[in-house]
Write a structure and sequence with these properties.
The protein has 416 residues and is of the alpha/beta class. The chain has two domains: 224 residues, Glycogen Phosphorylase B (Rossmann fold, 3-Layer(aba) Sandwich), CATH 3.40.50.2000; 178 residues, Glycogen Phosphorylase B (Rossmann fold). It has 15 helices and 14 strands. The strands form two sheets. It has an eight-stranded mixed sheet with strand order 3-4-2-1-5-6-7-8, sandwiched between helices. Strands 11-10-9-12-13-14 form a six-stranded parallel sheet, with helices on both faces. Strand 13, helix 12 and strand 14 form a beta-alpha-beta unit. It is globular, with a radius of gyration of 21 Å. The two termini are 23 Å apart.
Length: 416
């Protein structure tokens, strides 16, 4: 199969969309498929190209057998609206131009976020008269409204109209969970048009290992019980709860508990200011970590926090951080309601708390620190019961089956 994949984010970026596309496409290439990814220069979240890269008009490289075409985009940090919109818009014409250099595909896939990447795939599939599969990993513009990043009703109505037109141009929509499928159904998308392929985890990379003393030494963590949030420090994360919990833990005299915020994003400096303002010596902020550094950080810590703001939309979301924490056999403290809570509770892999509730977060961390047997059991359940079901080796094969059905159905339609 020849697969042309449009993705705004890709390796070596470490966010969820980049990781998903990387893990799937490298496995497809390893299985003998001809895979091309059209993306930009790695720059998330700072808007600055990673070391070894420049924001050129066009550049190519091979990433584990995947032909990777990187195009120029207007670079912007992961905060604000206007410059990020320019970043999203600039991807569309340059990715379309670059895709002409890829082998003639059997199928075109485009993934969100961001929303306009889906339109790049739609245009490319129309120009080449190929099958089009849209990945919906974010319900736009709903996700923008959930974090109050956009308030102009005229723009929102325009985005909603574009959203529905995009759905109608697809041969198949692939989404990452039941909650997203339900949201699409609520918008009138026929469910026979939708397949569910969840995010997953590389069980070989993310596996239990001895604590990384180097990470603890570097950040002065000593032998404390450490709860880590590893991911984007952005508007959707609601990490004010960590600041509040740290204040309560400190006020309770617990000097044996520390919090780590590992990542970068639009709220990074605000979190740093909040830590300094509250004089919190029990909160460490590392800044952005590479994927291998994230694995070392998880191995060095005792519990993993997965947290989002409390909004109705996020009840449908299952953050990929859940799978990585579970694969590392770390107990999860989950501040996400809905589908994610059902997953963690159902596999007895962690403690679920109310999102944006500092008191419950503090109580959960203290409980795990004081009950090491509970922490071990939750971590073991995560690895053996939860993560084992979301191995990317299996998910990559399942996705290929979806693509094969799309090709078969179109072939049958053309004969009838």
């Amino acid at each position: 199969m020849r697969i042309l994949f449009f993705s705004h984010y890709f390796w070596p970026e470490g966010n969820a969309p980049a990781t998903r596309v990387y893990e799937l496409t490298r496995r497809w290439a390893r299985s003998g498929h001809d895979v091309t990814v059209v993306t930009g220069v790695p720059n998330v979240p700072s808007g600055v190209p990673y070391e070894g890269y420049r924001n050129l008009l066009l550049q190519e490289e091979r990433v584990e057998g995947v032909r990777t075409i990187r195009v120029w985009t207007y670079l912007a940090p992961n905060k604000g609206t206007f410059r990020r919109t320019l970043n999203y818009l600039s991807y569309v014409p340059f990715s379309l131009w670059a895709s002409a250099k890829a082998p003639f595909p059997d199928v075109v896939i485009a993934t969100s976020p961001q929303f306009l990447c889906g339109w790049a795939g739609a245009f490319a599939s129309r120009l080449r008269r190929r099958h089009f599969v849209l990945e919906v990993r974010d319900i736009w513009p709903d996700s923008i409204l959930a974090v109050e990043a956009l308030r102009c009703r005229a723009i929102i109505r325009c985005l909603e109209a574009l959203e529905m037109r995009l759905y109608r141009r697809t041969d198949r929509i692939v989404t990452v969970g039941d909650g997203y499928a339900e949201s699409l159904a609520g918008k009138g998308v026929p469910m026979e048009h939708v397949s569910i392929l969840p995010n997953g985890v590389d069980l070989e990379k993310f596996s239990p290992r001895d604590d990384d003393a180097g990470f603890r030494r570097r950040y002065g963590l000593g032998d404390s019980f450490v709860c880590i949030y590893a991911g984007t420090i952005g508007m959707a994360a609601g990490l004010e709860a960590v600041i509040g919990a740290a204040v309560q833990v400190k006020a309770g005299g617990r000097k044996d508990i520390r919090f780590v915020l590992a990542g970068d994003g639009a709220d990074l400096e605000r979190m740093r200011a909040a830590v300094e303002r509250s004089n919190l010596d029990n909160v460490v902020i590392t800044g952005r970590l590479g994927k291998e550094e994230v694995i070392r950080a998880l191995s060095a810590c005792n519990a993993c926090l997965v947290h989002l703001k409390r909004t109705e939309l996020f009840r449908t979301v299952i953050p990929s951080k859940i799978y990585e924490a579970a694969a590392m056999a770390r107990p999860i403290i989950l501040g996400v309601e809905g589908k994610a809570a059902e997953l963690v509770k159902g596999h007895e892999a962690g403690i679920c708390i109310e999102p944006e509730n500092p008191r419950q977060l503090a109580e959960a961390v203290i409980r795990l620190a004081d009950e090491p047997e509970l922490a071990r059991n939750l971590g073991r359940n995560g690895r053996e019961r939860l993560a084992a079901k979301f191995d990317y080796n299996r998910l990559a094969d399942d996705y290929l089956q979806i693509l094969s059905v799309v090709l078969r159905d179109r072939a049958l339609a053309s004969l009838s």
